[in-house]
Amino acid sequence: MEQTYPVYEKISSRDLIGRKTGWIGLVGNLLLVLIKLIAGYFSQSIAITADALNNLTDCCSSLLTITGFTLAAREKDRTHPYGHGRMEYICGFLISILILLTAISVGKSSLNRLLHPMNVLVSPSIILPLIIGILLKLAMAWYVNRLNKAADSAALRAVRNDNLSDSLVTSVTLAGILLIPFTSIPLDGILGIVVAFSILWSGFTSFKENLVLLLGKGVTPETERKIRQLLSEYTLFEEVEDINLHDYGPEEKLAFIKVRFRESPRSAEASAIQNTVIKRLKDELQLDATLYPDMTSDSIPMDASAP
Q1: Alpha carbon distance 22, 17 (integer Å)
Q2: Range(s) of the domain holding residue 109
């Protein structure tokens, strides 16, 4: 009988954490966009307006985070037997493109302001929104980091780093605004360019990370070390010769481990040990592993995931 896969959403703590983070980020960034756009309009500061546009990009990022975790939560089906986990990587890739486009737009506006300076009005009503923005971004970074301790998501780590970067950018903007009355240098345009380069760096870093994940990232040195250490605890295995990792999403990673056995892997005791190792790799490293012997040995290849 042909195996079929039901189509429904699997609700896990990871999915809930991702969506919760996305909604919190959306609400927080919308509030910051509103506050900073008003402040930028009345102060005529391109640096504050650029910061607001950066937060607007963060709103889009939050929407993509929600979408990515929602789609990634869909169960395996006949068309996608390994699940939809890579949607998280795709959304992260799209977010990085949005960030890069924002950096270009902000850079063009800031360069124009540098070449054609305008007076910037400095008042407590302008400074207060920036202070609120710094505190809110730091609070969001702390909260995302706290939630991500359970999910261990690269996408959420990027969200945390983005919040920290935003708080730094706003701090630089605030410092520049405070110095404007004391200098004739067109600080507003200069700070806008600094903000643009900061956004560009964040976008490039995210772009590179997500592109590597989409193309297929091999086993990391840390994961390889843990796999070798785990297998070394059993005398059945003489040596781990090769490890191939196939990443279909944060919760769907297949590991094919080529090992050299000290004795035949076909005995009941050897099979029990292999099953124990497979279970430990799943529980401790979230890997669906298959052990197979060195083809140069006399052992018959065996799918270690079999019961």
Answers
A1: 9
A2: 13-215
Q: Quick check: 189 pLDDT over 60? A: yes
Task: Extract the tokens encoding 264.
Answer: 């035949």
CA distance 93 to 110: 26
Which residues make beta-bridge pairs with 293? Answer: 259
Residue 241 lies inside a defined structural domain of this protein: yes
**0.90 exceeded by the pTM?**
no
CB 210 within 8 A of CB 141: no
Q: What are 253's strand-pairing partners?
A: 247
Query: Considering 181, 215, 249, which residue would you say is the last residue of a domain?
Result: 215
Q: Name residue 195's amino acid.
A: V
Between 203 and 2, whose confidence is greater?
203
- What is the CA angle 196-160-222, rounded to 5? 115
Distance CA 221, CA 201 (A): 26
Is residue 8 in some structural domain?
no
Which residue is associated with the tokens 């090769």? Answer: 242
Q: Maximum CA pair distance of the chain?
A: 83
Beta bridge mates, 256: 244, 290
Q: How far apart are CA 215 and CA 210, in angstroms?
A: 9
The last residue of one of the domains, among 215, 231, 249, is 215
pLDDT single digits (tens) 78-91: 888 777 878 878 88
Residue 261 — φ and ψ, nearest 5°? Answer: -90, 145
Residue 135's pLDDT is: 93
Reported for 294-303, long-range contacts at CB under 8 A and 24+ positions apart, including other chains, are 294/241, 294/258, 294/259, 294/260, 294/261, 297/260, 297/261, 298/264, 299/261, 299/264, 299/265, 299/266, 300/265, 300/266, 302/265, 302/266, 302/274
Judgement on whether residues 165 and 29 belong to the same structural domain of the protein: yes
Looking up tokens 């099979």 gives 271
Enter the tokens of residue 83: 């699940």
**CB 27, CB 136: distance < 8 Å:** no
- Eight-class DSSP state of 86: T
Q: Tell whether 258 is covered by a domain.
A: yes
